[in-house]
């Protein structure tokens, strides 16, 4: 009957048009236009995949370079290695073994890590041991110190200590030590695993087809030919073509043995060297999806026309289904009939009828106003209405028939005790029934004694009582009336329900928004009850004065703890926490207060950590510190836990971040000295350029390099002066000015540090006599 309605027929036709025509147009457009676009998109995706693979390789090589530079500047490999005693310095030698092993394990690219020391005697360290170099091996390793830069990539032939077979040439990264020193005496040598490097280069061919390789800018092979010693004809042809392209770097199509290849290449910048990566992928593998998709589009478009008609009919039935159900439902009520009307006209008619019934229900709801008022007051007391303003609260409670104009508000909290002793009268699960009875008793007594009073049933053996009193009534008079009422409530509940009662109340407040806080304070007050007494009435004001040892929270000591955390001073933070804990123990006789004070301190400390930028979830591995602290009972255990579980992980994280920043800072300062040693530079000027105090820069520089700033600057200048005295005929005043000294001062500082005058040094160098 209803399936043939006018709305159904119109919707079916509309859906059929919407589903069929756009699909047909889109299919034609995709076939004639989309194929080319898909081809372009596939090529773009191919280039993006190639770029991502190139970035991945570049990042791994950069990581290897940065890691090696970090170790080169490590204090473990500073000037003290010149005095290494391999016979008696067992601990230092073991530390070197362990460090080399750690360096090897940190990066999968590394095949072997070696440390060559020329002083105090030629030694070669690996992660497996060390060996003294003989006359035949010494030149091969000595030449590493003659490299023009402190860090660079080289092809180097080496043999492992455990394998004395024929030498194999590897791509290696070297770094002189100590890092940044003008007189290096050792070299870190990291050999790259050729298999891992080849696998990385293979990633440049995303689909696993075609070829990829890595060469230097001069055409020298890096991978894979450098390892295998064999070069495929395709690779050789591509290398020649790329060399012809020069700086163009644009992708091109290359024909080899009748097959077209899409060739892309780019440049890695590696420590003043440029490496060229080349990737060639058969065009057939890129265009095959386009051909298949084009044919598939034709088939899908044809099938889509047929499917659109079927789905249109099905969709119309599904969309009309809820409307049909509504029409059937409404037609069965009130003898409604379609009678040529549209379905929505019928729905509108029934909706008007439902609206009238809703209005009748609203009238019925108003008669249930007392229950609604009690629900509102329950939400108010429990703090669910804090988002409302004071005026909104008063307006709503006035609308519920509870006049509060020009009134003060007080909340009384009543706790029923001894329910478990009511054997024979009530059973387990009757708590709601007992609370309901007590609420009715309290309400009846309060309405007789007070002008405005409302009892609130919390359904958990607790009852709240909201009392309104005129503001002009003296507090003493009001309190006397309240105490008299509470005594009567106590007697009635004892007599009728045979339960013991604990009641708390405080001074009235002028605003409704204060009620949740008053209730919470009253709840907390009854926690100080004496369990030996049956019935008790607590006045919050009197309770504050009667507590033997009130909780005194040491806010000043909390600020000291937070400040020590912000400064990153672990020792000061531990001491401040201990003083804070001692202060709590001295003024809080109860274990609960000590625990609450430490919980508050934990929140303040974590808040300070988050302001610094610390990720607490990552730092503490998702642990719930509050839950752990709540499990501790003894103050000594709390103090130790706070030190080990809260402060130590944070301080270690801070030190790790500071060490990284200090390394970067010192590297920049060393670079500045190397570049500007001939200028009139000073500690203050360098510190100001890096926005630091001179004291901070001096302390950081000494800590990271083991030498004072001015001593390092003097050492660089004198090394340059020695070079000029040896290799040039410049006059002394010209040499002095070239290295940043006044001529009169140059002679004195040179003799003080070198032991001879500049002229004597020059003469000795010309006579090939060493300066002792």
TrEMBL record:
InterPro entries: Homeodomain-like_sf, HTH_AraC, HTH_AraC-typ_CS
Domain of life: Bacteria
Keywords carried by this UniProt record: DNA-binding, Membrane, Transcription, Transcription regulation, Transmembrane, Transmembrane helix
Start and end residues of each HTH araC/xylS-type domain: 667-764
Gene3D superfamilies (UniProt xref): Homeodomain-like (1.10.10.60)
Matching SMART domains: HTH_ARAC
Membrane-spanning residues: 12-34
PANTHER family from the UniProt entry: ARAC-FAMILY TRANSCRIPTIONAL REGULATOR, HTH-TYPE TRANSCRIPTIONAL ACTIVATOR RHAS
Protein name per its UniProtKB record: Helix-turn-helix transcriptional regulator
């Amino acid at each position: 009957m209803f399936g043939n309605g006018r709305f159904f027929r119109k919707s079916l036709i509309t859906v059929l048009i919407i589903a069929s025509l756009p699909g047909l147009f889109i299919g034609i457009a995709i076939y004639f236009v989309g194929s080319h676009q898909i081809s372009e998109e596939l090529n773009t995706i191919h280039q993006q995949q190639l770029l991502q693979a190139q970035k991945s390789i570049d990042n791994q090589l950069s990581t290897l370079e940065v890691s090696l530079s970090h170790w080169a500047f490590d204090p473990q490999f500073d000037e003290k290695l010149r005095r290494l005693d391999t016979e008696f310095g067992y601990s230092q030698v073991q530390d070197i073994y362990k460090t080399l092993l750690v360096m090897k394990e940190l990066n999968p690219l590394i095949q072997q890590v070696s440390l060559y020391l020329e002083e105090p005697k030629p030694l070669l360290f690996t992660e497996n041991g060390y060996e003294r170099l003989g006359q035949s091996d010494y030149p091969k390793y000595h030449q590493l110190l003659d490299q023009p830069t402190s860090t660079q990539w080289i092809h180097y032939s080496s043999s492992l200590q455990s394998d004395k077979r024929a030498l194999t040439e590897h791509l290696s990264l070297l770094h002189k030590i100590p890092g940044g020193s003008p007189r290096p005496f050792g070299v870190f040598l990291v050999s790259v695993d050729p298999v891992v490097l080849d696998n990385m280069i293979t990633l440049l061919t995303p689909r696993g087809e075609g070829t990829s390789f890595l060469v230097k800018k001069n055409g020298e092979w890096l991978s894979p030919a450098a390892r295998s010693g064999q070069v495929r004809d395709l690779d050789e042809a591509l290398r020649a073509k790329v060399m012809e392209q020069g700086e163009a770097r644009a992708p091109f199509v290359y024909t080899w043995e009748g097959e077209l290849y899409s060739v892309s290449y780019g440049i890695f910048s590696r420590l003043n060297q440029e490496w060229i990566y080349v990737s060639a992928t058969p065009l057939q593998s890129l265009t095959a999806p386009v051909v298949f998709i084009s044919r598939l589009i034709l088939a899908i478009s044809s099938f889509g026309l047929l499917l659109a008609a079927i789905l249109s009919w099905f969709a119309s039935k599904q969309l009309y289904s809820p409307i049909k159900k509504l029409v059937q439902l409404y037609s069965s009520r009130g003898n409604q009939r379609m009678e040529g009307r549209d379905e929505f006209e019928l729905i509108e008619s029934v909706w008007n009828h439902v609206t009238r019934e809703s209005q009748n229900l609203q009238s019925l709801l108003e008669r249930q106003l007392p229950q609604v008022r009690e629900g509102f007051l329950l939400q108010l007391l429990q703090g669910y209405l804090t988002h409302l303003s004071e005026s909104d609260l008063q307006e709503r409670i006035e609308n519920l028939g509870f006049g509060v104009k020009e009134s003060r508000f007080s909340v009384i909290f009543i706790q029923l005790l001894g329910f478990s002793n009511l054997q024979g009268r009530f059973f387990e699960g009757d708590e709601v029934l007992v609370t309901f009875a007590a609420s009715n008793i309290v309400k009846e007594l309060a309405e007789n004694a007070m002008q405005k009073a409302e009892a609130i049933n919390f359904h958990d053996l607790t009852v709240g009582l909201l009392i309104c009193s005129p503001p002009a009534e003296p507090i003493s008079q009001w309190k006397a009336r309240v105490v008299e009422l509470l005594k009567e409530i106590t007697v009635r509940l004892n007599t009728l329900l045979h339960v013991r009662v604990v009641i708390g109340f405080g001074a009235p407040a002028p605003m409704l928004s204060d009620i949740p806080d008053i209730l919470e304070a009253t709840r907390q007050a009854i926690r100080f009850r004496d369990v030996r007494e049956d019935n008790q009435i607590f006045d919050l004001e009197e309770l504050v004065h009667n507590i033997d040892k009130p909780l005194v929270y040491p806010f000043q000591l909390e600020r000291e703890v937070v400040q020590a955390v912000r400064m990153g001073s672990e020792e000061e933070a531990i001491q401040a926490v201990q003083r804070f804990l001692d202060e709590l123990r001295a003024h809080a006789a109860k274990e609960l207060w000590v625990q609450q004070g430490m919980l508050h301190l934990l929140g303040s400390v974590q808040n300070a950590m988050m302001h610094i930028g610390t990720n607490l979830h990552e730092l503490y591995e998702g642990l719930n510190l509050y839950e752990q602290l709540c499990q501790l009972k003894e103050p000594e255990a709390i103090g130790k836990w706070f030190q080990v579980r809260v402060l130590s992980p944070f301080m270690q994280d801070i030190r790790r971040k500071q060490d990284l920043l200090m390394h970067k800072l010192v590297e920049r300062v060393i670079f500045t000295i190397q570049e500007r040693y001939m200028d009139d530079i000073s500690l203050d000027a360098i510190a100001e350029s890096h926005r630091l105090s001179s004291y901070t820069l001096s302390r950081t520089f000494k800590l990271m390099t083991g030498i004072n700033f001015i001593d390092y600057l003097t050492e660089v200048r004198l090394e340059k002066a020695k070079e000029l005295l040896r290799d040039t005929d410049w006059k002394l005043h010209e040499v002095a000015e070239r290295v940043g000294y006044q001529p009169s001062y140059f002679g004195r500082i040179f003799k003080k540090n070198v032991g001879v005058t500049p002229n004597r040094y020059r003469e000795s160098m010309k006579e090939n006599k060493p300066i002792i």
